[in-house]
């Protein structure tokens, strides 16, 4: 959801992608590499054709250099996403998805679409899923009360999108609760 600069009180989508890049992902390396230490930890060794788990940022770097194939996470497949979309459109609650699914799927579709099965269908399902979840979160904001907002199973990108509206709404509702509007006096 694009917001004007004045309402951006939270992190941007590229910043969320950067945070998500710390998630571990499986690859099939095309090169050998000894265990290597980075600030975030030590990864490797990489030995083709054995799978290895490395951070997404490292997998993207290797993929761009054509030194690995990225293995899609178990949730990034047509059957799983279709089932989640069905739940989103038929059940009132948000379906359970990985917390950073939006960021990870975007990075993988941008960088490693050749490693994914039917990337165009995946993009379409992710778009439909996102739209269904956005509709639910808008409906949840309509039912906002001053004490809480309960929207379990929201992902990081969705939380980030509604945060500015939620904060403003909660401030207004709290002021109304603290300083109720007096009722008009009745004349005899």
UniProtKB/TrEMBL annotation:
The keyword Nucleus applies. SUPFAM superfamilies: GINS helical bundle-like, PriA/YqbF domain. GO terms for biological process: chromosome segregation; DNA replication; double-strand break repair via break-induced replication. Pfam families: PSF2_N, Sld5. Its main location: nucleus. The keyword Nucleus applies. Residues 12-71 form the DNA replication complex GINS protein PSF2 N-terminal domain. InterPro entries: GINS_A, GINS_bundle-like_dom_sf, GINS_Psf2, PSF2_N. Residues 75-176 form the GINS subunit domain. It is found in: Nucleus. Keywords: Chromosome partition, DNA replication, Nucleus. GO terms for cellular component: GINS complex. Component of the GINS complex. Belongs to the GINS2/PSF2 family. This is DNA replication complex GINS protein PSF2.
């Amino acid at each position: 959801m694009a917001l004007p600069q004045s309402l951006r009180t939270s992190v941007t989508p590229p910043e969320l992608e950067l945070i998500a890049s710390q998630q571990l992902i499986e690859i099939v390396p095309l090169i050998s590499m000894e265990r290597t230490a980075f600030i975030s930890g030590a990864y490797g060794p990489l030995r083709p054709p054995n799978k290895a788990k490395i951070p997404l940022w490292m997998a993207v770097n290797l993929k761009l250099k054509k030194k690995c194939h990225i293995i899609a996470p178990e949730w990034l497949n047509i059957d799983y996403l279709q089932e989640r979309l069905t739940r989103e459109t038929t059940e009132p609650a948000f379906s359970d998805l990985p917390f950073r699914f939006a960021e990870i799927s975007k990075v993988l579709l941008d960088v490693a679409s050749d490693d994914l099965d039917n990337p165009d269908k995946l993009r379409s399902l992710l778009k439909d899923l996102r739209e269904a979840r956005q509709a639910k979160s808008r409906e949840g904001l309509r039912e906002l009360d001053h004490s809480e907002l309960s929207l379990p199973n929201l992902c990081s990108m969705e939380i980030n999108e509604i945060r500015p509206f939620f904060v403003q709404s909660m401030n207004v509702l709290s002021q109304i609760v603290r300083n109720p509007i007096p009722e008009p006096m009745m004349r005899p």
